[in-house]
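Q: I have 581 residues here and want to know how they pack in 3D. Can you give me a structure?
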Amino acid sequence: MIYLIAILCIISIPDFAQQPTTYCNPMDIDYKYNFEQLNEKISYRSGADPVIINHKSEYFLFVTISGGYWHSKDLLNWKYITANRWPFEDMCAPAAVSVNDTLFLFQSTFESRPILYSVAPEKGIWEFYNRWTPRLPKDIGPWDPALFHDPDTNRWFMYWGSSNVYPIFGAELDHSKKLAFKDQYKSMFWLNQYEHGWERFGPNHSDPFKPFTEGAWMTKYNGKYYLQYGAPGTEYNVYANGTYVADDPLGPFTYAPYNPVSYKPGGFATGAGHGNTFQDNFGNYWNTGTSWIGLNWAMERRIVMHPAGFDKDGQMFANTRFGDFPHKMTSKKWNGKGDELFTGWMLLSYKKPVTASSTLDTMSANKITDENPRTFWAAKQNKPGETLTIDLQKEQEVKAIQVNYTDYKSDIFDNKPEQVYTEFKILVSVDGKKWEIVRDLIKEPKRDRPCAYIELTKPVKARYVRYEHGHVASPILAISEFRIFGNGSGKSPATPKKFTAVRQKDQRNVDLKWEKVSGAVGYNVLWGIAPDKLYQTYQFWNDEPNMFELRALNVGVPYFFAIETFDENGVSGVSEVVGVK
C-alpha cells in the first residue's frame, strides 16, 4: 500500500505585531467576568456604561462592574488597573470628572456612598474626597450619575436617573462642603415616546412597553449645556444617546430636534447608548456607548466609541457610519463629521464559507461570518491547534482581522490573569496549501482579548484566512465572529436606484425602499434634519429585504434621506437626497 502524505507548508514571515494605528468596535479591551453573575450561575465577559475621561492628556476608561479601570495614552492601547480603594459593591455606571490635577469618581447608588479622588490614577491610588453623600428618597438614586464641573463659573453639578418611572434629575453641588447637594434636586426632563419615535422600546422600537431613560452626561459647548441621556433600553439594537439643550446647567432644557445624537441599530456591533462625550488631545469630540450582545444574559454587552462633534449650527452628532469597521486613530484635528477616519477597509468575510477542524453538536462554523454576535461556532475540544478557515472565494488584500469570542457554558467568575488570557495565530494562504503566519499572539505578552482586533503591518494577498487556536480560559472554545477586513481589486458598486422615503400618518415612522444592486454586500441609509446634515446611519445587508419601516423620527420635524451601497471593493456614491415633511 502506498501512502500519499500531504505536507502542509507554513512559512513564518516577520512579526506583524506593532503599535496599531487603527481601531475597530467593539473596543479591544479585556472585558471582565464579574461576581454579579454568580447569582444566576451564568459566566460571561461584559462591559457597559462607559465613561472615558481625558485627564492631564491621558485617558481613563471606567466601565460597569469591572473591578478596576483602564488607562491609555493614545485611545488604542489600554492597560487594566486595579485600585488601592474601590467600592465594596464594585462600580456600576460610574461618574467621573477631571478638574485641574484631580480625577473624581462616584458610583451609582441608592444609599450614601463616598466620592473618591486621585491625583495619580495611572498608579491606581485613590482617596476619599468625602465619606458619605446625602441619601435621597427611596428609588430616586443617584443611579447612573454624572459629575460636571463648569470651568467658566466654577460651579459643580450632578445628574442622574435610570428608570422608566422617574425622569433625569439634576442638582448643584457645594464644593465648599465636599460636593454635598447644595440645593434640592429637580427634574430635568422625561421621555416622550409619543413624539420621539426613537424613544420607543423594543427591537427597532416595536414594543409598547414603557421605555427607560438612563446614562446622563453633560457637555458644555459654545456657552450651551448639552444634557445627554440613553434610551430606550440597553438590551436592544436601537439603544441610543439623545440630548436636551439649555442656557443654564439646570435648565430649562429644550429637546433637540435632531435626536438621537448617537444611533447604530444595524451591523455587527449594534447599540450606541449610555456612554459619555469627551475631547481628545487634538480637540476632537468622541461619543462612547454600549453595544448589546445578550446571548448568555440580557446584560451581556460591549463598549463602542464613535467620532462626534458639533456642527456650525451647534447640532450635536456622533458618526456611526461603518461604525464597526476599522477606523484610523487621528493625530490631528479632523474636519467635518469625521468621515476621514474610516479606513476604507471593507468587510471581506460576510457569509463566506468556513471550514472548521471540529464542531461541537450543531454549532455550524458558517455562523462566524453572519455578522451576528448572538450566533456562534464551538469546537469539540478547547485545545491548541483547533482551526477555522475562511475561504474569501478569490484573492483579496487583507489588512485587518477581528476575532470575537463567545462565553458558551463558561465556568469562569474570577479574572485570574494566569488563567484568563487569549492566544491564537492568524495564517493566510493564496492556494490553501502554502501558509504564512501573519500574527502570533502566543509569542506576545499574555492578555485577554474577547474582541481581539489585529491590524497587519502591511497588506497581505490571500484567498484563505485561518484562525489557529492557542488558549482561552473557558472550558469550551466558542467564536461568534471571525471578521476579515481589506479590499478587493474590482470597481466600487453602483449607487442604488429608485430610493424612496414615504412618511406615515404616524410621523414617527417612515417607509424606505430601494432597488438592490447586484453583488452588493450591503447599504447605508443616511438621514437627518437637513440635506447637509445626514448624520444618522442605518446599515442593511443585501440579503435582507430592500424595504424597511424606520420608526425613529420625531413628530413635527422634516427629514431628509439618501442611500449608498458597499461591497468588498469600496463604497458607491450617495444617491440624490429625498425629503419628507
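Q: Anything worth noting?
A: The radius of gyration is 24 Å. The first strand starts at residue 9 and ends at 12.
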